[in-house]
Structure formats: structure tokens, C-alpha cells
């Protein structure tokens, strides 16, 4: 398999994370009564346990897999936990619409920061695709109603900015640790779970989940807060980082579609336009991949 084909394959693997993240909103409607840090720590714990079992059953040595450079641990655990920490702080200290929109700057920042990576070239169509995706996300998040930033919520807005910088920085710098196997994400999830529990018991009160909520938590831990991080790790290390960045705007698009299908949101012209912007942005940013496919055909 050629290097270009390997890169395209890794990019598509990374895109699986976007599909899984799209399920997040649907799953979390079942666990809205669970405190946020308790929820994220339980989900990361589920991801760590199941991935550890997967490693053992595949015949690999967990001790060798988890023996990775300290920098990889700091970057990955910090990225996984830090993103969620500041996202929840943002939602607690600013209106959800504005905070979510600021947090959704991370896909565009991935595209911009990728220019700092060796061997990567930032083209106009990458930036254009990212901006189109951001416009589409803005329409989906605001439902076409507009936004109003109030200085009184500066703490929340600042946390949302840190949130977007952390995840975009983690996603781009992850390329530096391309030799770290994807299975090591098991340990990173465990580290994020420990930090989540510490934060939970310091800031929240425990709520015992019922059976339905436990099933949702397991689903989250296996998918949007589990497998998604494994495929994203592989994609950001070996795939087209610019295309992945723009493709990440597909998460709010697919999430909105799922909420509409399950009757938890309304289909509006703003939603349709937002979808068009995101799909258009992804196609623009994927110009090189599309042209390569046409040449082979």
C-alpha cells in the first residue's frame, strides 16, 4: 500500500470518531441527571476497562503497551481530561449556545495549527473548508437565532477558548508521538478517569445511576467517550490532519440529524443550511483526496 493510500486509510479511520461523537448528545439525554464530572469519569473508566480486556485478549502485554514516554502521557491525559474539564466549566459559567460555539473553534484551529507540523502544507482550501464548517456549526448551535456575547460571562468564554485550544493542540501535537501504539489510549483513558473522579468528589455529590442510566454510561464509554478516542488517536497520528479537522464539524451535523430523527429537535431551514455549509466545507478541504481518487479512477 502506498504512503498516500495509508494516509487516506488513516484519515477515514479517524473520521469514525466524528460519527461516534455525533451519538454523544443522543446518549447524554438519558443521563442528564448525572453530574458532569461523575459522568465523564465513569465513561472513561468504562473505556479503560474494556480496552484493557481487549489488549489482554489480543495477546499483547499491557505493561509494555503502557510504558510510553512521559510527554505522551501528559499530552494525552491532559488533552482528554483538560478538554472536558474546561468545557464543563464553560457551560457552568456562560450560556450554553455561546460557550459551545467558542468550543467548536477547535476543528478550525486544528487546520491552522497543522501548518506547524513537518511535512504539512496549509492551503487556502483547507482554511476555506474550516471556515465553512464553522459557519455551519454556528447555524446548528444557534438554530439561526444569532448570538450575544456578554462580558459578564467572561470566565465561561475564557474556559471555552482554553477548551478549544487544548483539544486542537492535543490533536496536532499527537503527531509527535506517532510511534506510541493506539492501545496506549487505554492508559490515557484511565488517567483521565482518575482525574475526573478527583474533580467529581471535590466539586459534586455522587448520584447513583439507575439501570437505564448505567446502560447509557456503558454505551458512552464504548463509543463517544471510548472507541472514538482510539480511532481519533490513530487518525491524527497517521492521517490527513487538515481533512480530519474540517470533518470534525460533521459531529454537530450528524448529532442534529439524529436528534431530529428521534424527535428531540426540530428540522428548520437553519439546520438545513448549516448541514450544507458543513458538507461543502468538508468537500472543499478534501480537494487533494478527491483529486487523487479521480486520478486513480
Structure, explained:
With 297 residues, this protein is mostly helical. It has one domain. It is built from 15 helices and no strands. Helix 1 packs across helix 13, helix 3 packs antiparallel against helix 10 and helix 12 packs antiparallel against helix 14. The protein starts with a helix and ends with a helix. The mean pLDDT is 86.
Could you write a compact summary of the structure shown?
The chain contains 15 helices and no strands.
Give the number of domains: 1
Q: What is the straight-line distance between the termini?
A: 16 Å
Instruction: Note the total helix count.
Output: 15
Mean pLDDT: 86
The structure class reads mainly alpha
Per DSSP E runs of 2 or more residues, the count of β-strands stands at 0
Give a short account of the largest sheet: none
Report the helical percentage: over 70%
Estimate what percentage of residues fall within beta strands: under 5%
Rg, please?
Answer: 19 Å
What coarse outline follows from CA principal-axis ratios?
globular
What are the secondary-structure elements, in order, as H or E?
HHHHHHHHHHHHHHH
What are the segments in which pLDDT stays under 50 over at least 5 consecutive residues?
A: none
Amino acid at each position: 500500500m502506498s504512503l498516500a493510500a495509508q494516509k487516506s486509510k488513516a484519515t477515514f479511520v479517524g473520521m469514525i470518531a466524528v460519527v461516534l461523537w455525533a451519538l454523544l448528545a443522543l446518549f447524554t439525554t438519558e443521563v442528564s441527571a448525572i453530574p458532569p464530572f461523575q459522568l465523564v469519569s465513569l465513561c472513561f473508566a468504562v473505556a479503560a476497562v474494556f480496552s484493557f480486556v481487549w489488549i489482554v485478549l489480543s495477546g499483547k502485554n499491557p505493561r509494555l503497551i503502557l510504558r510510553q514516554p512521559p510527554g505522551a502521557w501528559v499530552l494525552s491525559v491532559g488533552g482528554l481530561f483538560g478538554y472536558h474539564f474546561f468545557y464543563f466549566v464553560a457551560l457552568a459559567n456562560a450560556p450554553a449556545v455561546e460557550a459551545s460555539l467558542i468550543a467548536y473553534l477547535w476543528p478550525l484551529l486544528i487546520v491552522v495549527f497543522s501548518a506547524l507540523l513537518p511535512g504539512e502544507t496549509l492551503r487556502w482550501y483547507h482554511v476555506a473548508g474550516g471556515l465553512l464548517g464553522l459557519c455551519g456549526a454556528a447555524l446548528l448551535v444557534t438554530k439561526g437565532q444569532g448570538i450575544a456575547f456578554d462580558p459578564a460571562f467572561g470566565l465561561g468564554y475564557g474556559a471555552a477558548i482554553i477548551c478549544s485550544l487544548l483539544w486542537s493542540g492535543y490533536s496536532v501535537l499527537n503527531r509527535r508521538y506517532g510511534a506510541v501504539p493506539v492501545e496506549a489510549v487505554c492508559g490515557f483513558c484511565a488517567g483521565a478517569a482518575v482525574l475526573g473522579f478527583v474533580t467529581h468528589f471535590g466539586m459534586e455529590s455522587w448520584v447513583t445511576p439507575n439501570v437505564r442510566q448505567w446502560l447509557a454510561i456503558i454505551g458512552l464509554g464504548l463509543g463517544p467517550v471510548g472507541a472514538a478516542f482510539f480511532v481519533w488517536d490513530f487518525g491524527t497520528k497517521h492521517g490527513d490532519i487538515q481533512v480530519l479537522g474540517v470533518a470534525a464539524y460533521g459531529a454537530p451535523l450528524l448529532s442534529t440529524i439524529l436528534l431530529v430523527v428521534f424527535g428531540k429537535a426540530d428540522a428548520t431551514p437553519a439546520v438545513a443550511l448549516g448541514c450544507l455549509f458543513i458538507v461543502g466545507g468538508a468537500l472543499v478541504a478534501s480537494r487533494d483526496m478527491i483529486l487523487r481518487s479521480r486520478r486513480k479512477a
